[in-house]
Inverse folding.
């Protein structure tokens, strides 16, 4: 992908992006912001998002994606609006057609820096990990990233900016796969089902078995379970 793409190619890509958003049911999800920048001579344009701020266990996973305007996979949407099967299929399609980078903030960094700062760190690392340096970055949320180009924060961006939506899919699928792998190592916690979120079965496992190395000790339910488990021992 380079700045040499024609305006016709950009407009075609933007139309495909809009159709993908409407198919997902948002109507506002388009490639329009990326297309406008490309027509203005700013390219590559990356979108980035993270998955896993809320869980009690596991990492935060961030992804950055530069979509090819002429090869946008149909059906891209906010990962939360897609089924697991749809996300898996789109994950492969995005990786085959776009520039993609992923970064992971482990529980130790989350506990040290807090969840917001760890998430921003991972997002920045994902952008820096792209094979092509972006000329502009869109990030989901309120906080801009400290990267070597203009960064624009878009609240609700995974439902508005197609590149951010693509990144949300990459981040979600990557994290889900990591949690399923973790479930093989710690079968008593049900990570493959709840992905580390604080559902009742997870809280019960914490009370019975105590936290693992992959739990976030700075999160109150984990700290309470750790203290209770220590007393029992």
């Amino acid at each position: 992908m380079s700045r040499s793409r024609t305006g016709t190619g950009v407009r075609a890509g933007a139309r495909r992006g809009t159709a993908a958003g409407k198919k997902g049911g948002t109507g506002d999800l388009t490639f329009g912001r990326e297309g406008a920048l490309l027509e203005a001579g700013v390219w590559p344009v990356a979108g980035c998002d993270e998955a896993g701020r809320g869980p009690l266990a596991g990492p935060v996973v961030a992804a950055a994606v530069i979509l090819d305007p002429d090869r946008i996979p149909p059906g891209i949407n906010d990962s939360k609006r897609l089924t697991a099967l749809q996300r898996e299929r789109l994950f492969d399609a995005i990786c085959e057609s776009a520039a993609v980078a992923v970064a992971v903030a482990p529980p130790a960094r989350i506990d040290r820096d807090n969840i917001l700062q760890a998430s921003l760190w991972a997002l920045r690392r994902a952008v820096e990990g792209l094979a092509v340096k972006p000329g502009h970055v869109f990030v989901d949320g309120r906080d801009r990233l400290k990267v070597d180009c203009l960064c624009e924060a878009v609240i609700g961006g995974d439902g508005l900016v197609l590149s951010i939506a693509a990144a949300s899919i990459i981040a979600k699928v990557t994290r889900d796969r990591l949690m399923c792998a973790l479930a093989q190592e710690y079968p008593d916690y049900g990570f493959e089902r709840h992905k580390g979120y604080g559902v009742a079965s997870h809280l019960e496992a914490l009370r019975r078995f105590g936290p693992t190395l992959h739990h976030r000790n700075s999160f109150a339910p984990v700290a309470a379970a750790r203290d209770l488990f220590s007393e029992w021992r």
User: Anything to note?
Assistant: The radius of gyration is 19 Å. Confidence is low (pLDDT under 50) at residues 1-26.
